[in-house]
Amino acid sequence: MDLRQAWEKEFKAILERFGPTNLTKLLGERCSLHRTDDSVQLNFKALDFDIAMKYDVNKGNLDMSYETKVGSERDLSHILFLHGKILNRRLKLGAVDKEPGFVGIIELPGGIGAKAYENRVRSYLINEMEGSTKDEMKRISEIMGGSLDESSKADWAIETEPINGVRIMILYWNSEEELPGSASIIYGAEISKINLPMEDIKALTEIFVKRLVDCYRKVTGRSPKKWASLYR
User: Fold this and answer.
1) What does the DSSP assignment read for 69-124?
2) Is the predicted pLDDT of residue 124 greater than 70, yes or no?
3) Are residues 52 and 117 in the same domain?
4) What is the pTM of this model?
C-alpha cells in the first residue's frame, strides 16, 4: 500500500464514522464538514495546505483537491497520512483542553531515545533560518496555519496546532557576535494526555519544520545556506 492509498483509507474511515462536531473539535475553526445522504465534504487546514475532500458514500470514492502557497507538493501524501492516522486515533479518545506550559521531547514517553533526532532537526533549523526576522515570520506563521508569540523573548516564536492535543512551538534566536544561533522545539503540556506514539510526534514535528523552512525560502527568496533539505 502506497502513501496515497494509506491516507485515503484513513480518511474514508473518518468520513464514514464521524460528524462535524467531532472533527471541528480536533481540527479547529479552519475545519468545515457538510454531510448529505450521498456525500461528505470536508475542508481543513494541514500546515500550509488548504485541503478539500469529497467522499461519495455510495461509490466509496474519495476526491481531494488542495491549494498551497509553498509548493513542494511531494510532501502532501505524507502530511495527509499523518493527519489521517492521528485523527483516527484522536477521534476515538476525544478532544482535550489546552494546559498551561510546554514540555520538551525528552519529557515525553520514549523521548530520551528521540534526542539525537531532535538535535538533527534543530541543527537544520538553526542553519537554514539564520537571519530570519519577526516580521518575516509573522507572514509565514499565517501561511502555515499558526501564530506568532509576540510576548516571547526569542527573536521569534511560532506556534501551531495542526490537530487538537498536538501543539508545537518553535523558538528561534539568531547568532549574535560570538554567540551561535539556537532553537528550541517544545510541545503544549496537554500532549502528555493523548498517548500519541513518539514516532508520530517525531514525524509531525519533522514535516512541520521542513515546510516552515520551505515557506521561509519561498516568501523571502533566500537560497539554502547549508542543506537543501532536511532529508539530506
Assistant:
1) SS--GGGHHHHHHHHHHHHHHHHHH------SSEE-GGGSTT-GGGHHHHHHHHHH
2) yes
3) no
4) 0.91
